Amino acid sequence: MGETDPNTREPIDVEAILEALESGETEQIVAIAKEAHPGDVEVAFERLEDEDREQVLDQLPAEVLSAWADYLPASDVEHRLNTLPETERREVLESLSDDELVDFLQEVDEEDRGQYIQRLDEETRQISEDLLKYPEESAGGRMTKAMAVVPVGLTVKQALEVLESIREEAELLSRIYVVDEHRRILGKLRLRDLAFSKWDTEIAALMDSDQISVNALADQEEAAQMIARYDLMALPVVDDEGRLLGVITHDDALEILEEESTEDMERISGIGGQSDFAYLQTPAMTHFRRRFGWILTLAFLALSSGFVIHAYEAVLTNYYILALYLPMVVAAGGNTGAQSATMVIRAMSLGELDTREFWRVIWKEGRIGFLLGTLLGVCVALQIQFLMPPGMITGSLTPLSVAIVVGFSLMAQVLTSTLIGAALPIGAKKMRLDPAVVASPAITTVVDVSGSIIYFTLAGAIFR
Amino acid sequence: MGETDPNTREPIDVEAILEALESGETEQIVAIAKEAHPGDVEVAFERLEDEDREQVLDQLPAEVLSAWADYLPASDVEHRLNTLPETERREVLESLSDDELVDFLQEVDEEDRGQYIQRLDEETRQISEDLLKYPEESAGGRMTKAMAVVPVGLTVKQALEVLESIREEAELLSRIYVVDEHRRILGKLRLRDLAFSKWDTEIAALMDSDQISVNALADQEEAAQMIARYDLMALPVVDDEGRLLGVITHDDALEILEEESTEDMERISGIGGQSDFAYLQTPAMTHFRRRFGWILTLAFLALSSGFVIHAYEAVLTNYYILALYLPMVVAAGGNTGAQSATMVIRAMSLGELDTREFWRVIWKEGRIGFLLGTLLGVCVALQIQFLMPPGMITGSLTPLSVAIVVGFSLMAQVLTSTLIGAALPIGAKKMRLDPAVVASPAITTVVDVSGSIIYFTLAGAIFR
C-alpha cells in the first residue's frame, strides 16, 4: 500500500461527512457531494452505517444522484428516487447511460421495474427493454448500445460527420465499428485514423479487419476474459447472425473479473450465494445466511470422521500415543488438499486449464503430493525417533514403530489428499458445476475421514 | 461458459500446433503463428509441455517474436532471443513498447539485463534505464512513457499537429494530457474534443481539469484500484513534484488486479511465493517449494492440538463418546474462522475496509458468530437428544449431558473462531503484513487448539 501523498488524490473524507451529519449542516454535505468523484463516494458509502447513509441520501440533489447512480447500490438509489418528485425522478432515470439504467432495473424488485420503465421516454424505454431481454450475467446483459457505428462505404469526411452527431452519446469514440448493410462487423477504426487522414479516403481502406466479438448469450465472464486476453478497450457483442448489438467496455471487464474472483474466493471458503453490497453494508443476518448452510452441512459430515475415531476405540485407547499425531495427520490432508484445489480452481478461472488436461494435472499433482508427503513423513518420523520427550512412548511400543506408522500415514494421506484436491474441482467442472463449490470444505471433510482410516488401520496392523 | 459459435473468435488450436510439430511441418507452425492473436498464443503456450514449447519457439521468425513478447514468459522470449543473430535480436528488443521491454528486462537475470540494455539504441536505452529505476511492483515500474502530452497554450490546430507527429508511438491517443512548463498536469483532453472543435480554439478551454494521478512510488495495486474506482482508461503517474512521468493503462490494471486476486487466494490456502508462469508451465518442483513451507509448519503446529488431546487422556478414555464429536467441534471452528477471514481479507483487498474499522468488524462478526454458533449448537444438541443410535451413550452419561457439552462447546468454539478469523487479518495489516498470510492455515491451527481445550474442559466439568 502506498503512503498518503500530496500528489495522489485522496478519497473523500468520510469523517467530514459524518461530522456534517451530526451537526446537521446539510449544505456542507451537498457541497462535499457535488465536488466528490462518484468513485470516492462509493468508497465512503461502503463505510457508512445504514442510518447515516439514508440521511446523506435524503440530502442529495437530483443531478448529484444521476452522477452517482452507477456507483451506489440499487436499493440506495431507489430509496432516494422514491423521495423525489415525479419529474425529477424521471430526469434522473433518463440521465443514466443505458447500461447503468439496465443495471439499476435488473437490481430492483420486479414489480417496481415495470413502474420505472413506464416513466421513461419512448426511446429510452425501447433500449432498456431490448437490453433487459438478456440474462443479467450474460454479455448482452452487461453491454451498452452507446457505441460508434458507421456503415462501410463512407469517406473519412462522411464518417466524421456521423461521429460528430453522436459524439456525446457514444461511450467510446476511440473504437468505431464499420458494419455492412446487415449490421455485421467488417472492421474497426480508431478516431486517430480518421482525424489524421485525407477527407476523401474511403474508411474501408483505414479499418483494421480483425473482428473479435462475443455472442450476446455468452457468459459475462467469457467476455471479460476476452477483453483481458486481447487487451481490448471494448468488445463488440453480436447476435447469432453476427449482427452488432452493443459493446462491453474495459471498465466492465474489470468489474466482472473482480466479482468473479470474489465469488471464487468465497466459494473456496464455504460461503454461499452472492451479495451486491460491500462487507460493512451487508447486514449481519445476510452474512449469517450465506455462511450457515455449509457450516451445518460440514458439521454433520464431520460426524463421519467422529465415527471412524469412535470405531477404532480399541486401537486408540491401547496406544494412546496415537492421539498425539492424529490432528497432524488429519490436518496435513486438509492443508495439502486445499492447496491443490486452490491452484487448480484459479488456473481454470484464468483460462489456463481445461477439463481436457485432467490427466496432466493428476500427473503433476501426483508428483507434487508424493514429494510433499515423503518429505513431511521423513521429517516427522525423524522427530519421533530422535526428539520425543521421554516417557511419552510406553508399553510395547518403540519410537521406531511409532515413527513408521506416523511417517507412512502422512505420506499416504498427503498424496491422496493432493490428488483428491485436484480431481474434485475438475470433476465438478466436467459436470458443469462451479469448480469452486466443491473446494476446500468438501475436500477437508473427505480427507479427514480417509486420513483417520489410513492412520488407525496402519497403526492396528503394525502395532499388533 | 458460452457455447462454441461461428461468430465468436475461437482460441488458437493447440492440437494443430502439436500435430504440425510431430510431423515436422515447420512452415505450418510459422503460418499458424503469423495469423494467431498473441492473446491466443498465450493460452496455447500455457498448455504446451516444456519441450514442445521450445520447439515452437525455435521456429518463430523475429517479427512474430516481437508481437508475442509481451504475452510469453520472459524465459521463453529469452530462449528464442539467444538463438537469433545479433541484428535480429536488437530488432526484436527495439520493436517492443517501453513497458513491454522493461517488463522483460525486470524478469531476466540481472547479469543478462546489462547485456540487453547495451544493445539498445541510445533513446530506447535512456527510456529503459529511466523506467528500471522504479521497483517492479510500483506504479512507476508498470507505467509506459508513450502517452500523448501537449503544452498548455496551444490551439486545437497546433495540438493536432503535435499529436499527428506522435500518433503511432502513443499508446492511447484517447486521453491527452495538458501540462504546464514544469510538466505538471493541468487537465486532460479527449481526441474527439479536438477533432470536432474549431482550429483556433485554445485547448485550455476544452480540457477537463479533473486531475487524478498516482505517485510513481505507490504500490501498483493502489494504481490499479484507482483505475477501477474512477473507471479510467489511463492513470497518469507523477513524481514527488507532481510532474507527469508516464501512464498506466486499463489493460495493466486488469492484469495487476488479477495477479493480486491470485496471490490472495493462494495465501489464503497456504501457498507461498509467486509464480510468473501458468499452472501447467510451472515445474512440479516449483509447486512443491511454494507449498512445503506451510505444510511442514502447520504439521508441527498441529502437534499442539495433539498435546491437548493427549493431556485429556483421562477424560477421553472415560467418556469415549466424546471422540464422536471431537472432529465436529474442531472442524466447525476451522470452517467458520476461514469464512470470516476470507470475507475480511477480500473486503480489505477491494478497499471496502480499513484497519480503522476494526471494532465495527468485530461487532459484526461477533453477532454473526453468535448466530452461527447458537444455531449450530442447538441443531447438534437436538440430534444428540433425539436421534442418537441406541447403545452409543453408556455408563453414567445421559444424552442430555452429552447434548449440553457438545452444544455449548460448538457455540463457544464458533464464536471465538469467527472473531479470531476476523481479527487476525486486520491485526496483520495493522502490522504492515499481508493480511492473507495469516489467514486460513494459521487460524485453523489456533482454533483447533482452542476448540479441543473448550471441549474437554467443559466435558470434564459437566460429567464429573
List the helices and strands and how they pair.
The structure is a homodimer of 464-residue chains.
Chain A: H1 14-22, H2 26-35, H3 38-47, H4 50-59, H5 62-68, H6 74-81, H7 86-95, H8 98-107, H9 110-119, H10 122-132, H11 139-142, E1 147-151, H12 156-166, E2 172-179, E3 185-190, H13 191-195, H14 203-206, E4 214-215, H15 220-229, E5 234-238, E6 244-249, H16 250-268, H17 284-311, H18 313-318, H19 322-349, H20 358-386, H21 399-430, H22 440-463
Parallel strand pairs in A: 1-2, 4-5
Antiparallel strand pairs in A: 2-3, 5-6
Write a short abstract of this structure.
The first copy, chain A, has 464 residues and is mainly alpha-helical.
Q: What structural class is derived from the secondary structure elements of chain A?
A: mainly alpha
Largest interface pair = A-B, 139 and 141 residues
Instruction: Report mean pLDDT of chain A, rounded to a whole number.
Output: 87
Intertermini distance of chain A:
58 Å
Radius of gyration of chain A, rounded? 30 Å
CATH class of the largest domain in chain A: Mainly Alpha
Q: How many helices of chain A?
A: 22
Overall body shape of chain A:
elongated
Low-confidence stretches of chain A: 1-9
Classified in CATH, the superfamily of the largest domain in chain A is SLC41 divalent cation transporters, integral membrane domain
Question: What CATH architecture of the largest domain in chain A do you see?
Answer: Orthogonal Bundle
Strand order, main sheet of chain A: write it out. Answer: 1-2-3
Chain oligomer state? homodimer
Largest sheet of chain A: 3 strands, mixed
Order of helices and strands of chain A: HHHHHHHHHHHEHEEHHEHEEHHHHHHH
Helix content percent band of chain A: 55-70%
How many domains, in number, for the residues of chain A?
Answer: 3
CATH topology of the largest domain in chain A: Tetracycline Repressor, domain 2
**Strand tally of chain A, please?**
6
- Which percent band covers the strand fraction of chain A? 5-15%
